[in-house]
Amino acid sequence: MSYSVGQVAGFAGVTVRTLHHYDEIGLLVPSERTYAGHRRYGDTDLDRLQQILFYRELGFPLDEVAALLDDPDADPRTHLRRQYDLLSARIEKLQKMAAAVEHALEARTMGIDLTPEERFEVFGDKDPERYAEEAEQRWGGTEAYAESRRRAATYTKEDWKRIQAEVDDWGERYAALVAAGERPVGEAAMDLAEEHRRHIGRYYFEVPYEMHRCFAEMYVSDERFKAFYDAMRPGLAEHLREAILANADRHTAS
User: Fold this and answer.
1) Residue ranges of the HTH merR-type domain (predicted)?
2) At residue 23, what are phi and psi to the nearest 5 degrees?
């Protein structure tokens, strides 16, 4: 029995793009290909993917995951014990910050007309109202706040699920880019920074490049924003900051 890349993506809850990336870097090379060159994954490939995702969930970078799976002398228990010590020191703090990952400035917390059950379905254990009062105090008099509140009030549960899915997909792609060692001033990183800017504009309010530069600084200076992005991949907040600034420069240069 073998499976297509789309089927495996569905099984594992990852994107097809992620599987393509794992193939390209040699982390998960499918054991079969069709005559047309399409990837086909067997049970052994699925076992390896499960191990990859397990270590990724623990925070291991892709190069260490490869070492664990391919080096016959590597002892996974040693790596796990070391990672456990690191994670234990951060767990309590990260748990407290998890509810803050919703972007107050982007006003996702404003005007969400969902039942408590629907909110949990869409946002998981993150409370989308937790920072609503703070957001209103800081930005309540701005046009961006008013526009974001107006738009958010019209969204249905399905709309929020689609928005969340786009955020998750973008995060996976950006994390893969950082893992691959792409520079923040490279075209790929700047393109994802531009996609980030347009996502806010599509669902919340228009974001001129100068405003996006301000966001970039806030993503590293505000611990809640930094925790949100670094949860996707350690160091991602700083990387995104540089990519946003570079992207703004390339679009506003005279």
Assistant:
1) 1-71
2) -65, -45
What residue numbers bound the domain in which 231 lies? 116-253
Residue 60 to residue 63: CA distance in whole angstroms: 8
Same domain, 133 and 211: yes
pLDDT digits (tens, 9 = 90+) for 26-42: 999 999 999 998 999 99
Would you call 75 helix, strand, or coil by DSSP?
coil
User: How far, in Å, CA of 254 to CA of 238, rounded?
Assistant: 26
Please state whether the predicted TM-score (pTM) of the whole model is above 0.85. Answer: no
Place of tokens 């040693």: 78
- Residue where the block lists tokens 């456990």: 84
Cα–Cα distance for residue pair 250/242, rounded to 1 Å: 12
Rg, C-alpha atoms of the chain: 20
- CATH code: domain of residue 138: 1.10.490.50
Considering the domain architecture, whether residues 135 and 237 belong to the same structural domain is answered as yes
Show which of 70, 91, 126 is a domain's final residue. 70
What are the structure tokens assigned to 102, written together?
A: 């919703």
